[in-house]
Design goal:
34% of the residues lie in helices and 28% in strands. It is built from nine helices and eight strands. Helix 6 runs antiparallel to helix 8. The longest helix is centred in the middle third of the chain and has 17 residues. The termini are far apart. 35% of the residues are buried.
């Protein structure tokens, strides 16, 4: 079954990022899996020197558009604006974050779902998150080029793709690609490969022809992010938030 994802950029309040990611993984994922058939692809902290801070990136995997609709229906049933069973959870979450920006994204056919990624042992010491913008209607062409040109070149550097996604509910002008880099030395090699004459020169040359603009920031796994622990977070992983720094 094809998947659909919720991609979230969350603004965290002050020094609460550790508490927030625990609340999001241990305190939300078990219920979401049972009640909404929603799996966590990842909960990452943005490396502030490369992007916004303090920020958390969440991605949630659902069984296609029908699964997403069922999720929304549970949230809004009876005209409510919030599932009452989550009132306490939301109240705590609201004290740790100030807001954010969400996108619905659709994966390429070659993007593996989270359970396959975990089974294959895909994990990064650091992750590169790339957001591409192109002319309206052409994000599919950009993602085709990611699969045909970028993916084999990047793989030769020892980097695995977590996934490539088209932003839905928009004008097909945005795409997101996430790479898992096994160590910091590989990240350095990846960055240097973008330099003129580097290993990614064919990909760099292809991007202007696609009308693409892009930016990259780095992320690191939260302690209970599925790619880090190889499974979905469970109730047994829970700890009091006041014990988390």
């Amino acid at each position: 079954m094809s998947k659909v994802y919720i991609h979230e950029l969350i603004d965290v309040i002050g020094h609460n990022r550790g508490r927030y990611v625990h609340h999001m993984t241990a305190n939300w994922c078990p219920e979401a899996r049972v009640e909404r058939n929603q799996l966590c692809l990842g909960v990452w902290a943005t490396l502030g020197s490369t992007g916004r801070w303090p920020e958390v990136v969440n991605m949630w995997e659902l069984d296609g558009w029908d699964g997403l609709a069922a999720n929304f229906a549970q949230e809004t049933a009876g005209g409510r604006d919030q599932d009452p069973t989550l009132a306490e959870w939301w109240a705590t979450a609201a004290s740790l974050r100030r807001g954010g920006v969400d996108r619905i994204v659709v994966p390429t056919p070659w993007t593996r779902p989270v359970e396959e990624l975990c089974a294959a042992g895909v994990r990064g010491e650091v992750y590169a998150h790339e957001l591409f913008t192109v002319a309206p209607g052409t994000s599919g062409d950009l993602l085709d080029a990611v699969g045909e040109v970028a993916r084999p070149l990047v793989a030769a550097l020892g980097v695995e793709v977590v996934g490539a996604y088209e932003v839905a509910m928009a004008d097909r002008s945005e795409a997101i690609v996430i790479w898992a880099l096994p160590d910091w030395a590989t990240w350095v090699a990846y960055e240097r490969s973008w330099e003129p004459g580097g290993a990614l020169q064919p990909w760099a040359d292809a991007l202007p022809g696609l009308g693409a603009r892009w930016r990259r920031f780095l992320m690191v796994d939260s302690p209970l992010s599925p790619l880090r622990i190889g499974r979905q977070p469970e109730v047994a992983d829970r700890r009091p938030l006041d014990e988390i720094g």
